[in-house]
Amino acid sequence: MREKFSALLAGAATLALSALFFPASAQTSGAGTDTVLPRPEAPFKGKIGETYKDSTPDFPRQVHAPEGAPNVLVILLDDVGFGHAGTLGGAVKTATMDRLARDGIVFNQFHTTALCSPTRAALLTGRNHHSVGTGVIIEMGTGYPGYTGIVPPSAAGLPEVLRLNGYATAAFGKWHNTPANEISPAGPFDRWPTGRTWGFENFYGFMNGETSQFYPVLYQNTSPVAQPKQPDQGYHFTEDMTDQAIGWLNRINATNPQKPWFLYYSTGAIHAPHHVPKEYREKYRGKFDAGWDKYREETFARQKQLGVIPENAKLTPRPDEIPAWDDQSADAKRIYERLMENYSGFLEHTDVQVGRLIDTVRAAGELDNTLIFFIVGDNGASAEGGLEGTVNEIASINGIQLGLEGLKEKFDEIGGPETEPHVPVGWAWAADAPFKWTKQVASHFGGTRNGLIVHWPKGMKSKDGLRTQFHHVIDIAPTILEAAGIPEPTIVNGVEQKPIEGVSMKYAFDDEAAPSHRTVQYFEMLGNRGIYKDGWMATTRHGRLPWETAGAQGNFDSDKWELYNLNDDFTQANDLAQQFPDKVEALKSAFMEEARKYNVLPLDDRMSERFDVTLRPNPLAHLNSVEYGAGVTGINEAAFLNTHGVPFKITANVEANDSDAEGVIAAIGGITSGWSLYVADGKPVFTYNFFDVEKYSVQASEALPAGAATIEVDVVPTEAGAGKPADVTLRMNGQHVGEGRVERTVPFAYGVEGFDVGMDTVSPVDSDEYQSPFAFTGMIKGVTVERQPESVLERAIK
């Protein structure tokens, strides 16, 4: 009886202790051998007697990474063309890249998807971007499997796989892989960086596709946080995210130095807005006076001298759609040079910050066993600033090109906090030397070919080497798993996994002559298409130019296909389509085979049309009115009622302690664009900011009285359509106290700063009148935002 009781007690205690104190993922003894994650519980191997004196303890085994598994650092820059960084022949000083390349290897036939969040999704899952629902940026998702913007649980992120195999994981910088309407306090949080889909244990950065480097919209894990200091105190986001990454590394090393880590360092640089400290802008003064045509020639010569392109490579010609430098006016040249100086300083500044992070790894004695992937761009350089460039890139996204006039007015401020600049198309094309086209154009290497530096002294013998194997961003994840000795999982968190579609690149680390293990790769973005197979590539650039935000054609059958033999033609310079029509047809068929396999269909060439929030699920879709209470801040625009091109009304119930109350009652957006209802000099004011080019204000004729008051603002377009003028009426306690007109309204999106009640966080909508947060000094009982019936618009038009 005594023995039977002891056995029952032992079993019950084991189960109770395991279930109560230790999650399943922490109860394994082995590591790197199982493909089901988390691994099942390890049995209790101790002995339980009646008392501790006749018992033997045995703690549940925590997961440990395989012996000798390297740390992993993935560095991803944004919107960097192949021909911009000095390491790859460009004019920008990139000392950190240079050092890593000298002690590592460079891949010169590495490819991305031609756009940001698709590249990131492919990188972090090891699957093609359409396979994981990210065939286009997440703000443009549609209800088809390849385009939802929702990464499925069947494609668990690399950081989750590494975490469940004993790694510490963290992400810093730009995210851009959470559906926009889920970036809200209500979540869901599964697809946030720290959610189960991705598996990062720590995140610090911004969630959207871009943000101001001086006034970023920041999150720590899933909570909004304020930037630690202001631009006039020397703040810049790339420096901030580097400080945070260094701090995290130091904490991990101080508390568990044996634990390997995976750090994803994904800068917002050098994506627009091109923001950089002034001293870096000045470094490049006069360096680009010869213009973009000459710059490409000079870059091409340097690339051959460095050996990063083959000797027989040809410089591709300027497309007819891009103007010649010599045809620009003197004024235009002066402005374009300044934009490129600023853009180039931004890249050097970023490289310096990466250097600080690398120095931290070196100082900790961990550089030799840290596998570093330095991906020099998530796509080619961006042409989204238009033919003239812009002082406000959010305006460009909205289809409004402010052009030279806007740039002239703010010439001396270009690159500072008061501007959101973007280079013109010509410089983007030049930065992609020696290839054709730019970001968005997945058919040509100007959109998809980016430099890759790999550095891992302990794991490879090669130094200062060049690798010419054809690879794609989906190949990074399986390379990391092979290097760490971790098998590809079949089940993660109870969900059967899609097979990883990438192939490991590790075979090429010490064998420069090895044939490429990737023999087929499709490319597709916004209707631009390409297919690589066994050294040949067929491509077609479809319809809309990459600096145009609208103009979907819908007709794909009439697209002209080109053909290139990449074994002899590094730059896609020699079109062989007419010589080998049968080869073109065979490759077109191969593209369709891949397209069906990886959810590329249906092809869709819409751009701005897909920003329409009604195309995606939205919890507010059935509502015409939402009341917001005090303390609501940072509500992403995708999770807010639409106030573009529709009549809307703001009703604020407030209570002022005295007649000196001031501050913001409600606002959306910031210095880039938006609207704000606030009290200044005792009177309510409604201001509409049109891309910081024009501000339209209506001030009440009477002061806000002490005590309870109701303030109403009606904004009614004067005609149907996006971006049309609107009439504004201001009432207080039911009495008409002001009116005015907004001559130009924002068509689609105010930018990345959200909706706030009681203050204007991040940056001010009306920087001429107040500085953020300008909190309201009275009490806010509620703010209601209401979409007015269409009849209101119809009456206004009549």
From TrEMBL:
List the signal peptide residues. Answer: 1-26
> In the UniProt record, does the keyword Lyase occur?
no
Pfam families per the record?
Sulfatase (PF00884)
Q: Which residues form the Sulfatase N-terminal domain?
A: 70-486
Record-level Gene Ontology MF annotations: hydrolase activity; metal ion binding
Instruction: Give the family, as the similarity comment puts it.
Output: Belongs to the sulfatase family.
- Name the chain's protein: Sulfatase
